[in-house]
Amino acid sequence: MQVISALSAFFSPKSVAVVGASSYPKKPGNAALRNMISMGYKGKIYPVNPREETVLGLRCYKSVRDIPEPVELCVLLVPAELTVPVAKELAERKSRFNDVAAVVCISAGFGELNTPEAFQREKDLVAILRSASIRLIGPNCLGVMDTVSGLNTNFDIPSYPRGGISILTQSGAFGNSFLISSGTAGRVGLNKYVSIGNMADVQMAELLTFLKNDESTRVIGIYLEGLSDPRGFFEAAGEAALAKPVVVLKSGRSELGSTAALSHTGAIAGADAIYDGAFRQFRLMRAHGVAEFYDTVRAFSKLPVPRGNRVAVLTHMGGAGTMCIDGISALSGIKMASFTNETQAALKSILSPAANIGHPPGYVDTTAAHYENLHNLALTLLFKDPNVDAVIQILAPSAFLDQPLLAKEVASAYQSQGGAKKPLLNVVTFGVFANELRRGLEDASLPTFDYPDTVARVAANLSIYGALRAAAAPAPGKSQSGRSKWPAAPLIAAAAKDGRVSLLEPEAYAVCRQYDIRVPPFKLVESLQDAVAAANQIGYPVVLKVVSTQILHKSDIGGVMLGVSSDGVLEQSYARLVENVRKAAPGARHPSVLVQKMMPSTTELVLGAIRNKLFGPVVMFGLGGIYVEVLKRVGFRLAPFGVEQARELIHDTLPPQLIAGARGRNKMNVEAIAGTLVALGRLLEEQPQIEQVDLNPCLALDDGCMAVDARIILSQQ
Length: 717
Description:
- Helix 10 crosses helix 16.
- The protein is an alpha/beta fold and 717 residues long.
- It has 24 helices and 31 strands.
């Protein structure tokens, strides 16, 4: 509860000093003060400006040191160069009165300028406030809004409707656009809002913990650009998501290419791909566009989370209904419901003979022969059907219907559900009467949506969150294996001493075996005679691979010979391999050769791990082979994690038909693959000298998962 008490001064302070308050209406210091008053803040407000006597009827003080009563929160709206002197005054005041707990710095001109002077100013501001145990939100932000306490430091947004949505945003402009566009239409009720700015002190993770425990917050919406400590963020967000939905809109999808040339894993592990995997891992709902973010946050704020993923669609317009079905069919999180015989018979008894009932399953088109009460009757039947978990209704307001009455009938059907309610998502198309119907439904706490195709994704987000929360795995923790570091540690140390960037393949296999990652039988040889003996010992067919510190990508230079089936074929293949190597790497005139059992053809996977500069150890999984960098059908999870999260990664990444055994192949051994993924995470956690691991391909065998090629890249630090 320490985070709650430490941050409560930002949301419900007993008193606020506004430094930079102004009587000039077009100044931010006037607008912020005016908006705080209009929001209904009940605490004491102390304007501070050495050039003013009063501001908006309130006595104005020359300095924060002159305020005779306790000050809990201070808002800075002064030029950047004045913030550090004010911070010193606040620290002095804190030492005398022990009152100031928090500062919101609206002022810009700090680290965002990317200049030495600005960085130093931000550093000084934080250091002075921390020395007095004063927390800081910002700088370069719009601050905090709390409709429960009435606090408002935002100079753009005045009073706002109260509701269950709390917003954390790294862009004040984006956050304000969300509030302005949604609030004016009466479609959003706000609880708390934080424009966090440069995050020089208070971090997003702390605010998430605060909002998780805030009983008046129903859903958390986040606009995210980037994080300096993504692990801390995801751990806090994952805990919050167990209590309430967390919806994230993440911008900046460009990839990090820092080590892309060394391995397949590095080439694919862009920052956004890892973010996407972490969103799934920690049960966060990622919106893929602004409209989806707006609509998903609104839906969670007013609707219950469905118990399943079966959706019914009710409409009186064939075209709009078809677009909605197309949207549903393209998503993995939901599917069309299948009505019971009783529901189909009851719908048939009340609808026109021309109505479409259950074609396709879960679909009802009343045709134009509809009226206000008919929607009530049809919705009531759909809500009662045990095979329906949620309902999408598509409405086109017309002059032939009484819009307030239609809204009343719809709301009545929704409210008449007994026990746990099923969500109802209403699409209201555009037209002369649309606003009247939309207003009636929103007033009844039923969110409305604009488009029949995009509402499908919102319904899917509701269902996916419900499934994730119901099956929530324990948060990942530190490994407790106590596994000996032999032989990995000495192998790595020897390679580093030689100045190598990677382990040789036999060394990589030895490390894999230590972590119970299966590899084929193999033997390292130095001559043709030894190769023949090894092949006979292992059993044909075999694979020949060059082993050299000068060659990383063996296949590119003809350093791999597949399907070697006899002694005669081996002699020819061995000579060809040595010749290819000599042409590509003249210094490797007598290369070592790995003789390895050739495994039967099956589905090729890629399993990898990378030590990312931001995220730390990250594990990758997907379709493998030579096309891994082309197809990029991969997913990521932050390591370490457990078997349940490994299973989720497999099912999130691969098509279900492939897992079940496509084209005559046996069903994949998901448990064995999951165990290998967990082991990879543990490997990176326990061996900090390893930068990347690339197991490509990994074969999905009937009795497990086997890495038939292994590459381990070492850290160069």
